[in-house]
Structures are given as C-alpha cells and as structure tokens.
Amino acid sequence: MTANIIPTILTVMERKDQLTLIHLSKVQQFINLMIPGLTKKNIISETDIPDLWTSAILHDVGKIFISDYLLKAEKTLSQKEMEILREHPVRGYNFLKSLNLPNKILNAIKYHHERWDGKTIGKYPGYPEGLKGFNIPLYARIIQVADAFDAMISYRYYKRQKTVLEALKEIKDLSGTQFDPYISQIFVEALTKYKAADKQRVG
After folding, report:
1. pLDDT at 76
2. Most buried among 12, 157, 175, 183, using CB within 10 Å?
3. CATH code at 185?
4. DSSP conformation class of 12
C-alpha cells in the first residue's frame, strides 16, 4: 500500500463521521508526546515511528463500515448494538489487509481494544479475541492508552467529560488491568510533562 492512499481513506472517514477523524488526529498527537519516553526505554526504536503513526491515524478505520445510526446515536446503545460497534477493529483489519499493509499496522488496528488483564466481560471488555499481556501487539497497547484517554476527555452526550487530571488519574488507576503498566506510566509522565510545559508557556 502506498502512502498516497492514506489521505483518501481519511477523506472517506471524514465524510462518514468528522468526530472520528478528529479523534484519530488527537490519538496520533498523544502518541507523538509518548515517543521520547518509548524510545528512551527501548520499547520502540526510531524505525518503528512511521508505522506507529500510521497505526494511530488508521486505528478506527473499521468505523467506515458501521452504520451512521450506531456511530451518531443519541441514546445509550443496547448490548446487541454495542456488539456490532465492537466489530470495527476486525472490519478495519480486513479492509486494510486487502491493501497489503504491514502486519504491525494490521495487528495494531485489530487489537487496540484488548485489555492487559485479558478480561472480556464488564463495562469495558477486551475484544475481539481476549488477548492478554504481552500477547497483545505492542502498537495496539500504545494506541489503547491514547485512545481511551481521548475518549475520557472528549464530550459525549451519554457521559460526563473528564478533566485532563481526572483522566490521567483513571489511566493510573487502570494500569495493570485495562492498560499495559509500562506504557501507561510513560503516557502519564508524557502528558503530565506536556501539561506543565503548556502551563508555563501560557503563564
């Protein structure tokens, strides 16, 4: 797959649901903040960065194949509707597999909703396969933290929008259960450092 097809995919996504495209961009930005910590601790190398960026910007591409009714519903979804919505990682994987993307990117997209503890029940279950710990591909574990953080701080009609500090606390509280403890620590450190620097710039 050549790089020039990615803008085409993003254009399709924007027409489908502009909020999803904004979310993808924000997740990519959060991961960008994590990169110094990830490379310093040898979790990724410099050569990983392009594929990690691509994984981040495409991680919800499967939502192209989810109905507008579910993506833009102004009510709490039923269990059956949630199951359909949770098909988006596999749908995205299958779509991009046909375009010959590298396996690292494909697996990031397919598994970015798995949980570190492998739990597959409850309010935030891991899916689609219930992978656990280091069996979850690295890029997927990185994206999962940034993805969840943006969901926490973004406005949604069905939940209270968390502050950055509240969301960071939740990431810390869920470290080792929902999130990879090593990556979640790097994420919290990176966002805390960025927030402090941003406050100094404003001041």
Report:
1. 82
2. 183
3. 1.10.3210.10
4. H
